[in-house]
Amino acid sequence: xxxxxxxxxxxxxxxxxxxxxxxxxxxxxxxxxxxxxxxxxxxxxxxxxxxxxxxxxxxxxxxxxxxxxxxxxxxxxxxxxxxxxxxxxxxxxxxxxxxxxxxxxxxxxxxxxxxxxxxxxxxxxxxxxxxxxxxxxxxxxxxxxxxxxxxxxxxxxxxxxxxxxxxxxxxxxxxxxxxxxxxxxxxxxxxxxxxxxxxxxxxxxxxxxxxxxxxxxxxxxxxxxxxxxxxxxxxxxxxxxxxxxxxxxxxxxxxxxxxxxxxxxxxxxxxxxxxxxxxxxxxxxxxxxxxxxxxxxxxxxxxxxxxxxxxxxxxxxxxxxxxxxxxxxxxxxxxxxxxxxxxxxxxxxxxxxxxxxxxxxxxxxxxxxxxxxxxxxxxxxxxxxxxx
Length: 388
Prior knowledge:
Layout: H1 2-10, H2 12-21, H3 30-45, H4 57-60, H5 64-92, E1 96-97, H6 104-112, E2 119-122, E3 125-128, H7 137-152, H8 161-173, H9 179-189, H10 191-204, H11 210-220, H12 237-244, H13 288-295, E4 306-309, E5 312-315, H14 318-340, H15 343-346, H16 350-379, H17 382-385
């Protein structure tokens, strides 16, 4: 359309900025819109689509100034296209990450594999790339285009182009200067998981030197803390725990957060000396069995915070829930490891491996759950047992 052509000619940020400025109530958001739009516009110039600028009337003119502009446009597009080709090869090799999965178990595996949101693997280390500004646009596109392949095993096609566009937007929102927007979006999509993080972010603005304290806390302790609310703790408990987790000395009083296999979660990236840097490197911390389970596309789920014994529902406290997660997680990993390291496993194809391994994980989970229930029942008071 003429409107789209006009936007491409004058630049995306200029066009949107002009339309927003025409609406007085929206003037306040113009600065926040123009910054990401400038990045998108610069990324557009450094892609094959950037060559469309050669068709502008002022560029097609046969003047020395126009010839210089043509060379400038072509150089940017060619260099950016080469960078995009490199990004696509990294994505095909599984060495390029976009936004983390929404599924909690897949998200847990994402971080244990060493990946960070919007990062690229260099050697055996993952390094974030969203701080590269316009140069990150091809990486965002490649990561988004192949995200469908990562989750379904289907080759990406033109129908997934909007996934790539969405990844570019998500990558921009993930930057520090738009972290509040990202937190708000997450909280609206999943209030139970991200609502406390948003609340802590807002209240954290009133903590003197809050950012410095969080950096010092990350330097002194790389252990991720469990900030969830448990039965009887109150609705504001997660927010208070989130704030406590950012204060040196107090953070260590919170219990460790466990991964799906019952192991303590250790943060990577901006930890230790890297706490004061814009980003930090990370590496894969999974063992061979965990990597094989992930390779086959199996993501065992986390345990719930309650159990049903007979006819009675028992709400677990933090210590009981941690013990439950450890019991289930370690049983699943041990059983899976025995099968993965057996001679029989090597003779099977991936489809057979996945089917049998899934059954083994489910059975070991069920067996460990029954054992834990029996132990928990013995620890209940006579009054609690009377509810059975």
